[in-house]
């Protein structure tokens, strides 16, 4: 059996599971929509000072990154349930590639993220967001790249901890500084110098700035270059970690 076929079989099974119980998809989509309608209007006086015509032109790219990070980070919880039910053991006795077991799940997560991103961008346009079409397409692709990285890391963490009680606080501990220091909600230029210096060491800060810059259609600016580079590096590292974890699980 070829590698693409193995990935497709895993993806098809995972997609069917999601369609039977779409709660995670709905919950993952409701949070950024609530931010969009309840938090977005509060940004208007702040964003006007930055010279941006519409607050959603600033806010929607941040919400895309939030979808890619926070939605994908929860992907591993379902894997713990599968491990507990013996599904992972059943997959390991098959000749399927261990990489395919991970990639098939990642494709499911990326399809889910893509649909959510389209809904978010559509709502942004309805609320007055402006941006380059090519830039928005690239921003969505960059979001999917970082989403794939977070989903792979989540799956690796799930197989490492094998416990929701351990995994949940670890994710919360990581998510809080990422949310506050990546500039998803507010521009980091509003903070003191020391906070900006700390955020400069946060890869997700550059990814967020990269997605925002891409919406303007300017692909040559530093945030675009650094954001794309960081997203690619994180994806490669997370894919390697996830694959090696699946291989270690081989009895």
TrEMBL record:
Major localisation: membrane
Q: How does it sit in the membrane?
A: Multi-pass membrane protein
Q: Which residues form a coiled coil?
A: none
Location(s) in or outside the cell: Cell membrane; Membrane
Question: Where are its TM segments located?
Answer: 21-38, 58-80, 110-130, 136-158, 170-190, 224-242
Q: Which residues form the ABC transmembrane type-2 domain?
A: 23-249
PANTHER family, alphabetically?
NODULATION PROTEIN J
The entry's protein name is Transport permease protein
Originating organism: Knoellia subterranea KCTC 19937
